[in-house]
Amino acid sequence: MARIRTVKPEFWSSEQVMELTIAARLTFIGLWNFCDDRGVYTASPKRLKAQLFPSDNITSEGVAALVAELVHHGLVGEFEASGQRYWHVTGWAKHQLIRKPTYRYPIPPGWVAPDQSCPNWSGTHAELVPDQCGTDAELVPDEYTPEGKGMEGKGEEGNKSPRKRAARPQKTKIPEGFAVSAKVRQWASDKGYQNLDAHFESFVSKVAANGYLYADWDAALQNAIRDDWGKLRQPGRGTDAAPMRQRVDL
Predict the structure, then answer these.
(1) What is the mean pLDDT of residues 216-239?
(2) Tell me: the pLDDT tens digits for 1-53?
């Protein structure tokens, strides 16, 4: 089954890629779409031609020559398993991060299935690891020359996980025993607000009458004081200062 893969911008300026012919570059990118999630593909030029160039004037032999060019530059390796030959994208595990990989072909030489008992296994590179448990070795076999850093993008299979947003605090009814906290008193003092008891009574009365819900009741009271819910800053109603209005997010 074909897969969606991503090409990093650095791909185009990689020295290894720039040494390829244009047709070989296109073949290389197309190969990613039809590899399994280990970067392995059966070594069949005829099949690859049918998948990549179904309507183009190129023969299976021509495709084989393009793959040979990739092998020559160390971008693709070849191996044999159970009497059948396979191609393998050499830098796959380093540059393709796939969360839920599926495999169709054998594991290339020098690679093993991840051992969850390894102290360095984090579960993020679940597709393949080198046979060197407990080391900090890169996820590339020694016998292959990988692409330069930034060659292949992380395929979309590896980026499907949505970003989790922090849960917003839940709004509640006014807490039992809610009173003017030391935090609010200090804030009011710093801002020059007076008559806190009157402001508080007005706030509680309005909340009860309207069934208001808040996530942060201290902030809600601060907003009520600032917005003068009790109209205590009207002429003859109090001595509060009237600083510039600046709301507190609830």
Answers:
(1) 80
(2) 567 787 778 888 888 889 999 999 999 988 888 888 888 998 899 999 999 99
Predicted TM-score (pTM) of the model is 0.46
Task: State residue 65's pLDDT score.
Answer: 95
Q: Which two tokens stand for residue 70?
A: 């990739």
To the question of domain 9-159 being in CATH 3.40.50.410, the answer is: no
| DSSP letters spanning 204-243 | HHHHHHHT--BS-HHHHHHHHHHTTTT-TTSTTS-----P
Task: Tell me if 38 sits within 8 A of 93, measured CB to CB.
Answer: yes
- What tokens does 78 get? 């070849």
CA separation for the pair 6, 154 (Å, rounded):
6
Domain chopping of the chain, boundaries: 9-159, 165-250
Q: How far is CA 138 from CA 107, 133, 233, in A?
A: 17, 11, 69
CA-to-CA dists, residue 215 to 16, 60, 180, 221, 246, angstroms:
57, 67, 16, 12, 19
Cα 65-54-73 angle, rounded to 5 deg? 25
Mean pLDDT for the chain? 75
